[in-house]
UniProtKB/TrEMBL annotation:
PANTHER family: 5-FORMYLTETRAHYDROFOLATE CYCLO-LIGASE, ATPASE INHIBITOR/5-FORMYLTETRAHYDROFOLATE CYCLO-LIGASE. It comes from the Bacteria. Its cofactor is Mg(2+). InterPro entries: FTHF_cligase (IPR002698), FTHF_cligase-like_sf (IPR024185), NagB/RpiA_transferase-like (IPR037171). This is 5-formyltetrahydrofolate cyclo-ligase. Its EC number is 6.3.3.2. GO terms for molecular function: 5-formyltetrahydrofolate cyclo-ligase activity; ATP binding; metal ion binding. Pfam families: 5-FTHF_cyc-lig. Belongs to the 5-formyltetrahydrofolate cyclo-ligase family. One of its GO terms (biological process) is tetrahydrofolate interconversion. Keywords: ATP-binding, Ligase, Magnesium, Metal-binding, Nucleotide-binding. It comes from Microbacterium enclense.
Amino acid sequence: MPDRIEQAKRALRADLRERRQTLSAHAREVAEAGVTQQLDALVERLGARSISCFLSTPTEPGTHAFVAGAVARGIRVLLPISRDDGLLDWSVATPDAEIAEGLFGMPEPVGDVLGPIAVNDVDLLIIPAAAVDRTGMRLGWGRGYYDKTLGSMERCPPVYAVVFDTEFVDDVPRDVHDQPVTGVVTPTRTLAISAHTA
């Protein structure tokens, strides 16, 4: 049974990855502007003063403009740093932070490193995803970093996954360790998932 779930996940990830790679530069710019607007409104609505967010890769819905804007407005933003043991360290975003390629080629900050428990202090988590379904189940990219992080938090604040509009789907394959999200942010809308409403 787990093998069948893993095969279904791999097939869906491959399809989503291919679709992301075919997006034009213009489509990516439009998506980043939309995501920035949606995330700004979400942070404002929730009154979040301390958040975590990821730095997007070139094929993901863009988050760099949002992070820069949030930092400029005085919001504390924690950025993830991948570790070999499957956990995430965190670093506080600064206006002039140096960004380098981390594990798996992900953009990650270079600077003072806070341990995995630093994320327990945030008011909102903004995380990457390959897809999210209507029940709030998230399909990640298969490394388990965010499932481990969410599963280990003492008091989990709202968790919103950022995807393209076409990646909010009816159903994703799920396994026992997969963690749901509170809502989804796309370039055109922000949706709270009713079972986990913020």
